[in-house]
Amino acid sequence: MLILLGVLALLSALAFLTIGARGSWGFVLAFRGQRLSALVLVAYSISISTVLFQTVTRNRILTPAIMGFDALYVLVQTAIAFFIGIHMLALVDPHLRFLGEVAIMVGFSALLFRWLFLGEERSVHLLVLVGIVFGILFRSLSTFMQRLLDPNAFQVLQDTLFASFGSVDTTLVGLSYTLAAAATLVLWRLGPVLDVLALGRDQAINLGVEYARTVLAILGIISVLVAVSTALVGPVTFFGLLVASLAQALVGHSRHRDVLPAAALLGVIALVGGQTVLERVFHFDTALSVIVEFLGGAVFIALVLRGAAR
User: Fold this and answer.
1) Which end of the chain is more exposed for a tag (fewer CB within 10 A), N or C?
2) CA–CA distance, 49 with 69 (Å, rounded to integer)
3) Domains defined along the chain, listed by start
4) pTM for this one?
5) DSSP notation for 93-138
6) CB–CB of 221/191 below 8 Å?
7) What are phi and psi of 66, to 5 degrees?
C-alpha cells in the first residue's frame, strides 16, 4: 500500500510539473518546483500533526484545527497586526517574524493544553468542548481586533488568513523546511514510544514512558508543523482529518510506522493532484480549499455518527 501511494504521489508531482507547460523548461520547472515543494511540505505538516494529535488525545475525530490550533495562529497574526501595525510589520524581516510567531504559538499552546493532557485522563466530550470553546474565544478576539483595524490594514491581514493552495508564500519555504526537519528529527527519536503512547496514559507510564515530557514534546512538534502549514497556505480545518482517516482505513491498523507515511503520501496526492486538476482542467474556476474542506467535513460527520451509533 505504501509503495502504491508513493507511486501515485510521484505521478501527481510529475503531472503538476509538466502538464500544460510552455516555454522554457528551466523557468517552468523552477517556478513550479518551488510551489510543488511548498505543497508537499504543507501536506506533510498537516498530515503528521493530525496523526500525532489523535495519538495524544486517543481519539480519531480530533484534529489540531478542531481544538483551536489554527484559530490560535490567526489570533497571533491579528494581535501582531493590531498592536504593532501592518506598516511596521512590513518592515520586519519575514523570516524573523515567522520565527517569532512560531515561538509564540509553541509557548502559548504548551500552556494552554498542558492541563488537558498531563493531568488525569479527560473524557472525549470534555476535550471537544474545550477545543470548541477555545476556538470560539480565539476567533472572537481575532474578530474584535480586526474590526478595530484600519480598513487597509484589515484587507492586508485578511489576505493572509484564508487558505489558498494556489498562492503559496515561497519566501518562507526554506525556513519552513528547516523547522519541519527539526520537528521530524525529534519525532524520529520519539518514534518507538508512539504506539505505546496510544495505549493511554496509565499503560504508557507502566511501560516506562516519560509521559509528561513525551506529550509536551509531541505538542511542540504539532505546534511547529501547524504554524508552518498555516504560514504557507492559511488555516485549514478538516484536511488533516480527511487524510488521517483515509490512511488508517487503507493501512488497516494504527501502527505509526505505516500510518504516518501513508497519511503524508495521501496528503501529497490530495493537494498536488487536486491543485493540478484545478489549474489544468477547471482553470481556477473553483478553490481547492473549498473541496478539501467539504470532503473533510463529510468525513468528520461520518465519524461522529458512527461513534454515536456504537
Assistant:
1) C
2) 11
3) 2-7+35-160+170-309 (1.10.3470.10)
4) 0.81
5) -HHHHHHHHHHHHHHHHHHHHHHHHHSSPPPHHHHHHHHHHHHHHH
6) no
7) -65, -35
